[in-house]
Design a protein that fits this description.
heterodimer; A: mainly beta; 4-stranded antiparallel beta sheet; 28 strands; B: 22-stranded antiparallel beta barrel; globular
């Protein structure tokens, strides 16, 4: 009886197993088949060479596609100097710094949905999607933040912030913007500050300081804290650190110095921060009161330095970008939470931001 | 088309040291690459016995090409690649034998013209009206010409020689596509012991040429904007010859140019769409020479002032305001050359020179001196001799030189040697030549001090080169030359990316450049047709590190094949129909020789009709020309579109009279 039931179960499950596998088939750009999950790597390219690309990686099938945006959209290229990516509701929003656009496409197919065209000279840097009708992109050259509708791809308003804005974050009805000054290259109003803006009015309600050259600002739900990463400043290349702030008071609660910090990513479930530093990738246990940055992945031999970091939300895998010489194709190393190297992906030039869906 | 190779040019030049035909003892003057006994103001021209390949682009050739500037003319010399960043208003630099723009010496009338600040010359600021001839000497020769002469030497000769009692007045005006208009004029007076010449040129172009651009999935025809160019140039010179053995003069030239400086066109954006460049340049020279049958001496002095103003309202840098930078440089030089005829077979020369540069500039790196300065001094010896009986019946010359330099801001004292020989095969017009030389280049102020790019610790580039070739004149109206060359450069200064958006000058590469040059020039069909053709094969590769992914890959913007031809047929005595064709092979925009970075090859064709007649004592000319007839869409430098088909009509008149 049990054996016959067992056989029935197998016979019943087989189609389900087969259908499940079909849903995660290898993506064939342009043919309509899709991948239900995947990884998009924004390769910045070489500045003003108009050679930014996307690398698409499907972890389930272990397939990697170079220049994926062009493959999925024949005749279309993504543009010049891709800087950031945000994934929201099945769509990806990629900031093209040189082309002054935010390119939008469907995650599962890579098909372009159009773009937000920003005013000439904006030099957009980072993007944050708040909801179906509101998203923000920082414009480093005009000291502004543009709010756009991510569904209609239309510009709603422009908000004045500080010098060379980079990271953008919305918490509640408040917009936080990191005014980096480009590490001292571009001083100006509200130097090295975090703008706090009431989205109802578009006005500053506070300005606070968490160190020089703030570039990334993130909110980690599991710790309930805001984090600001300060990068080194010109010309000394010193002073980089990760700062933890109380979201209610914006008071600095903790700060960790990481020499040569370049990028930061967070593992929500493990309450862990990963910071790219000059000696490799550092891990900070945010859940520990006495946490110190610990070297998680040292620089491999022959590597001049890591360039970017991202954490896959569903399993905590860590993606570490290596731009190599910023001219030839780069690499992305994939590590597990435990520090086991899982694979090395070849990417385009200067692998930067990563989007997961 | 009158391009000369060394033997032909020499025959003309050696007739007279002072421009009067048939006088002076020419048969036993032995020349060196550095100094010529006869006319020490021009160290390049008399280089028939020089083992270094020389191409001379005469004034007639420049006029036949209807060149706007020196860059237009230089393209027709073997080994030359003109890098153009857009239309008339775009930067124009020259690469010799795969070298960088900074790796060539540019002279005006034998004195150094390029600045320590950039190390390169923008040839769009040297109008054709001021050029008597352009001499291109290829291959490294720091021993003869000092720092920077890794790729070769370009000498722009402005001085013209007219018989005493002559006067020449010329004027020309042209109009063409994209709102281009040019007015130029010249006056040359030779009276007794004095010669004076004045030339002026005004050029203006809107630069709004259309080009195809693919963005966001569509190809559309758009117009290049902010590519206008307005240039006013003037030159005045006065030479006196109180005695046949004395020669002295002074020349002053200046230009004021205002132009748009658009950057690359990328998808969705034209970089630096509103950037502007305003430049005022004043350059004065004074020289004096004395000579006899046995020795000569010459002293040159120069002074230069250049004020450059660059603005980009869309780029914020430094103080958070939009870019608004001034660069003010003062330069001066003094050089002395002595030459002695030792005996019937040999000469010996010694020369010394010093240069001083001061730069007051914005946007310098944090570690740069507040006011960069450089004092450069050099001492050189040169000799040339005929070994005589080593090859009986073969006219042979051996040339050797040695130079040492000092730089106030560089911890090095480069020593540069050169050795070569030429042989004239008996009963022929075939001259063989071969040489080897060591050369160097001191880093420019831009490479050392420019904001976020400069590297104060740069070492000079060092190179060794070898060259062998031949010239042949099948008949008096036709010349053929060929050369094989090999150059290896160490500590090559390369722009190395430090991040995705910033680059830095570094001594990184070891570069090998080798190739072949072929040039043909002259008249055929009893002089009814003229032809100039030059082909260059150059392979310039990075050989720094065999384990590097860049090993043995081509350097950026180094096309392997270059072909330039110009031909004309005189259908009637007063009508000439001409055709120009050029081909540039593919080249890479970035190191690494990757397919995505490969720019496609392009071929350009032009045609012209020239009508000339005499009306009383005036020569009148009307010329109509079309360039890029097939409207080829091309880019010399990636993302800098070039103009398509264009038209131009020129009207000119010349009066030449004598007492």
């Amino acid at each position: 009886m049990l054996r016959s039931h067992f056989l029935l179960i197998i016979l019943f499950c087989l189609p389900l197993i087969w259908l499940s596998a079909c849903k995660d088939t290898t993506v064939n750009p342009g043919t309509g088949t899709t991948a239900t999950s995947g990884v998009y790597i924004v390769n910045e390219g070489t500045y003003k060479q108009d050679n930014s690309t996307l690398t698409f990686f499907n972890p389930k099938t272990d397939s990697v596609y170079q220049d994926y945006f062009a493959l999925a959209n024949p005749g279309l290229r993504i543009g010049d100097t891709g800087n950031d990516i945000a994934v929201y509701n099945g769509k990806a929003y990629v900031v093209m710094n040189g082309s002054q656009t935010v390119e939008v496409f469907t995650c599962t197919t890579g098909k372009s949905l159009g773009r937000v065209v920003l005013p000439a000279g904006s030099s957009p840097r980072q993007v944050f999607v708040r909801n179906d009708t509101s998203a923000f992109v920082s414009n480093s050259n005009t000291n502004t933040v543009t709010e756009f509708n991510p569904s209609t791809l239309t510009i709603k308003r422009t908000i004045n912030v500080g010098a060379a804005p980079e990271g953008v974050l919305v918490v509640g009805n408040t917009l936080l913007v990191a005014n980096s000054t480009f590490g001292g290259y571009q001083p100006g109003p509200k130097c090295d500050s975090i703008s706090v803006i009431d989205l109802s009015t578009g006005n500053h309600i506070a300005l606070f300081y968490a160190g020089r050259n703030p570039v990334f600002v993130r909110y980690v739900k599991s710790t309930g804290r805001i984090y600001v990463l300060n990068l080194p400043i010109y010309p000394d290349s010193v002073g980089s650190a990760l700062t933890e702030l109380n979201p209610s008071t914006l008071a600095i609660e903790r700060q960790w110095a990481v020499t040569g910090a370049l990028d930061v990513a967070f593992d929500e479930s493990a309450k862990t921060a990963y910071v790219v530093g000059s000696r490799g990738l550092f891990r900070i246990d945010l859940g520990s009161a006495s946490a110190n940055p610990a070297l998680f992945v040292p620089l491999p031999a022959g590597t001049q330095g890591f360039y970017s970091v991202a954490v896959r939300p569903d399993n905590g895998d860590v993606y570490i970008g290596d731009a190599r010489n910023f001219i030839l194709p780069g690499q992305m190393f994939v590590y597990s939470r435990l520090g086991t190297k899982l694979k090395t992906l070849t990417t385009g030039i200067s692998p930067g931001s990563v989007g997961f869906y | 088309m009158i391009f000369c190779f060394a033997p032909t040019c020499l025959c003309t030049a050696q007739t007279n040291p002072h421009g009067e035909p048939g006088k002076g003892d020419t048969t036993r003057i032995y020349t060196t690459p550095q100094v010529v006994v006869q006319a020490a103001h021009n160290p390049v021209s008399r280089a028939a016995e020089s083992p270094q390949p020389l191409t001379v682009i005469t004034r007639q050739a420049i006029m036949t090409l209807n060149a706007y500037d020196a860059g237009d003319a230089l393209a027709y010399a073997p080994g030359v690649f003109v890098r153009q960043y857009g239309g008339l208003g775009g930067l124009r630099t020259v690469s010799l034998r795969g070298s960088s723009a900074q790796q060539s010496v540019v002279l005006i009338d034998g004195v150094r013209y390029q600045s320590t600040t950039e190390g390169a010359v923008d040839f769009s600021n040297i109008p054709a009206v001021s050029i008597e001839r352009a001499e291109v000497l290829r291959g490294g020769n720091a021993a003869g010409f000092g720092a920077n002469a890794l790729g070769g030497v370009i000498n722009i000769v402005t001085r013209r020689n007219l018989p005493s009692g002559s006067v020449s007045v010329s004027a020309a005006g042209s109009g063409g596509s994209f709102g281009t208009e040019e007015l130029s004029g010249g006056l040359l007076l030779a009276s007794g012991k004095t010669q004076a010449d004045i030339s002026v040129r005004y050029l203006n172009t809107d630069g709004d040429y259309p080009f195809d651009f693919n963005e966001f999935g569509h190809t559309s025809r758009i117009t290049r904007t902010n590519a206008d160019f307005n240039n006013l140039f003037a030159r005045a010179a006065l030479w006196i010859k109180p005695e046949s053995s004395l020669d002295a003069g002074a020349a002053f030239q200046g230009f004021h140019s205002v132009r748009g400086a658009p950057g690359p066109a990328v998808q969705g954006n034209h970089e630096s769409a509103r950037a502007r460049l305003d430049e005022l340049d004043l350059f004065g020279t004074g020289s004096a020479s004395v000579s006899s049958d046995q020795w000569s001496a010459r002293v040159n002095a120069t002074g230069r002032r250049n004020i450059t103003h660059y603005t980009d309202p869309d780029l914020r840098l430094g103080n958070g305001q939009s870019v608004d930078n001034f660069y003010n440089r003062h330069e001066g030089s003094l050089d002395l050359r002595l030459q002695k005829v030792l005996d019937d077979n040999a000469t010996l020369g010694i020369s010394g020179d010093c240069y001083y540069t001061v730069l007051h500039g914005d946007n310098l790196d944090a570690g740069a001196p507040a006011i960069p300065k450089r004092l450069q001094a050099g001492l050189a010896l040169n000799t040339q001799w005929n070994p005589g009986d080593i090859l009986p019946g073969w006219e042979t010359f051996v040339t050797a030189a040695l130079r040492a330099d000092y730089f106030s801001d560089i911890q090095a004292v480069p020593i540069s040697p050169s050795l070569g020989f030429t042989v004239l095969i008996p009963s022929t017009t075939v001259r063989l030549r071969a040489r080897a030389a060591g050369s160097y280049r001191a880093p420019s102020f831009v490479e050392k001090y420019y904001f976020n790019y400069g590297n104060a610790g740069l070492r000079p580039e060092r190179s060794w080169c070898a060259d062998a070739g031949a010239t042949w004149q099948p008949d008096s109206a036709l010349g053929i030359e060929c050369s094989f060359f090999l150059t290896e450069t160490r500590d090559h200064i390369t722009a190395v990316p430090r991040s995705a958006v910033s680059w830095s000058a570094q001594n990184t590469a070891r570069v090998n450049s080798h190739g072949f040059e072929l040039g043909i020039s002259g008249r055929v069909w009893s002089g009814l047709a003229d032809i100039t053709a030059c082909y260059t094969f150059t392979r310039t590769v990075d050989i720094s590190d065999p384990s590097s992914p860049w090993y043995s890959t081509s350097l950026p913007y180094s096309p392997e094949h270059l072909l330039n031809t110009a031909a004309g047929v005189r259908l009637w005595p007063s009508v000439r129909i001409g055709l120009t064709c050029s081909f540039t092979s593919g080249r890479y925009a970035l190191p690494g020789a990757r397919t995505p970075d490969l720019l496609p090859p392009y071929a350009l064709t032009g045609a012209n009709v020239d009508f000339r007649t005499h009306l009383a004592w005036l020569e009148l000319g009307i010329r109509a020309q079309a360039d890029n007839i097939f409207n080829t869409d091309y880019q010399v430098i990636k993302n800098y579109p070039m103009p398509g088909r264009s038209f131009r009509v020129t009207v000119s008149t010349t009066y030449t009279g004598s007492k």
